[in-house]
Design brief:
This protein is α/β, with parallel strands linked by helices and 298 residues long. It has 10 helices and 9 strands. The chain folds into 2 domains: 80 residues, no CATH class; 193 residues, 3-Layer(aba) Sandwich (Rossmann fold). Helix 1 packs across helix 2, helix 2 packs across helix 4 and helix 6 runs parallel beside helix 7.
Length: 298
């Protein structure tokens, strides 16, 4: 393909591209590159395409690329078109069965991984539960970065769990990460291996208030509402999380979770009043917004 043809395709993408703060890797150029690689038969996440030379494409692949551009124009998330999304350095499969992993979720992931690294001693294994696991991005990132960790993860959506299991196989982490379909902690209630034995409980809950959903970007229409609708106050899952997670944690273990913009002060104050809480640590994004809390068990 000539440079002139490439510039025409880029101009087409620029004509409809809208930036999203939760997808900073996506620019007109990176979107075109990611779709180009997919059309050429080498799908990869938008983050992985940077710095890689574009493969040659034939006439058939060019028509495929133009079709992908039209789907992106209609609002389909890029990760749904490429089937890939990177999360904390881990390449994952992506699709409409679960929320596409966002950059802000890496804040809670880093906080949790740093906490787990603190608890590593000798050859003793570590144990974690991840609920509302979606595509499995948190659970798999933990296992990838903390070699002696075993993770049990759950999601209410059977379709999300199917994608998460595919990701476990895709990343080669199936032996250390198990996925279960069920409501929050329901799959683990009778498991003596987990009750009072976990170093970490993590969650990326739905936290957007129902009333705000109509004003959100069109791309969310292509993702499962179950993954982001947090109810009237955006706290329906978090309320249960605070009540149910302590019985799974070891003394000194921690609950780590993501939260929405503006929810931090209220949730911090609420957690500090709970008898099982020893300390609450806030983790902020680049703009200074509180986006994750790590809560240490007494």
């Amino acid at each position: 393909m000539s440079r002139a043809q490439y510039e025409l395709l880029l101009k087409d993408v620029c004509s409809f591209f809208q930036p999203h703060g939760d997808k900073p890797d996506e620019t007109p150029e990176s979107v075109l590159r990611a779709l180009w690689f997919h059309a050429a038969g080498t799908p990869m996440s938008v983050a992985r395409t940077n710095g890689s030379p574009l493969p040659e494409i034939d006439v058939v692949s060019l028509e495929r690329l133009k079709g992908l551009i039209e789907k992106k124009r209609s609002g389909v998330p890029l990760a749904h078109l490429t089937g890939r999304q990177e999360f904390l350095g881990v390449e994952l499969l992506a699709g409409p069965a679960a929320l596409v992993p966002r950059r802000e979720t890496e804040i809670v992931a880093r906080a949790a991984i740093a906490f787990l690294e603190e608890r590593r001693s000798g050859d003793e294994p570590l144990l974690a539960i991840d609920v509302c696991t979606g595509s499995g991005n948190l659970a798999l990132a933990f296992a990838h970065h903390v070699p002696r960790l075993r993770v049990h993860a759950a999601d209410l959506s059977p379709e999300a769990i199917e994608l998460a299991r595919a990701n476990a196989a895709f990343t080669g982490l199936s032996e250390r990460v198990e996925f279960h379909a069920g409501d929050l902690f329901a799959p683990f209630e009778a498991d003596a291996r987990l009750l009072g034995r976990c170093d970490l409980v993590s969650c990326n809950p739905p936290y957007i208030t129902t009333g705000k959903l109509p004003a959100l970007c069109a791309e969310l229409e292509h993702e499962p509402r179950l993954a982001f609708d947090g109810g009237a106050l955006g706290l329906s899952v978090l309320t249960r999380l605070f009540k149910e997670s302590p019985k799974f944690l070891k003394p000194g273990g921690a609950l780590a979770f993501e939260l929405g913009l503006g929810q931090g002060p209220v949730l911090e104050a609420r957690l500090r009043r709970l008898p099982w809480v020893e300390r609450v640590e806030g983790h902020r994004d680049a703009e200074g917004n509180l986006r994750a809390l790590l809560v240490r068990h007494r």
